[in-house]
Amino acid sequence: VRPRLRALSSGRVWRSALTVFVPWAVLSALFVGLLYGVAQQEYRSSANDPQWQLASAAAHALDAGATPGQVAAGTPVDLATNLGTHISIYDRADHLLASTARLNGSVPQPPVGVLATARSAGTNRVTWQPAPGARVAAVAVAYSQGTVLVGRSLSKVEENETLLLELCVFGEVVILLAGAAVALCIARPWSAPAAR
User: Fold this and answer.
1) How far apart are CA 168 and CA 171, in angstroms?
2) d(Cα 15, Cα 102) in Å, to the nearest integer?
3) Res. 193: pLDDT tops 60
4) Which of 25, 106, 139, 181 is found 20 to 30 A from 59 (Cα to Cα)?
5) 90 CA to centre of own chain
6) What are the b/e assignments for 4-30, b being 16+ CB within 10 Å?
7) Helix, coil or strand: residue 143
8) Largest CA distance in the chain
9) What is the predicted pLDDT for the residue at 7?
């Protein structure tokens, strides 16, 4: 009889524990998922901020009389190996006027429609992959005679996103383990046989 009572008691403990643990697990997963989503979106949106500032300043300088060569000046940036910011100036027909961007010895061309959208909307923010392993967060801003395109590598941002995901997964595992322990502690008194 005693083994059977112990089995019944054990079964009640597990059922009671699951009653506590399942809502805990669902809520924690929703919370951690929401936290990751918000933080990841913040990473991505802020990845474009420096480019937008530089592109806007460059467009203003061009409208004020600066030449494309003066605005897009500096050391060339190899998109395959360099995480730095690069700038390209285009005319109204999307012909390249000046650029600090380089890939395999030439200036990479942005995807079709990026510059046209910027001219019609005033600005355009895109994620661009000119080559395998080279992803760029780019911002195009229109000026009176064409378009300015400023970009930089997403490598560091993606590293931060990966680290964020790992931390969120680790945190969720810790929360689930803690939830399981709490559920068992709560369930035992509920399932204990009444004293006689």
Assistant:
1) 5
2) 63
3) no
4) 106
5) 29
6) eeeeeeeebbeebbeebbeebbeebee
7) strand
8) 96
9) 45
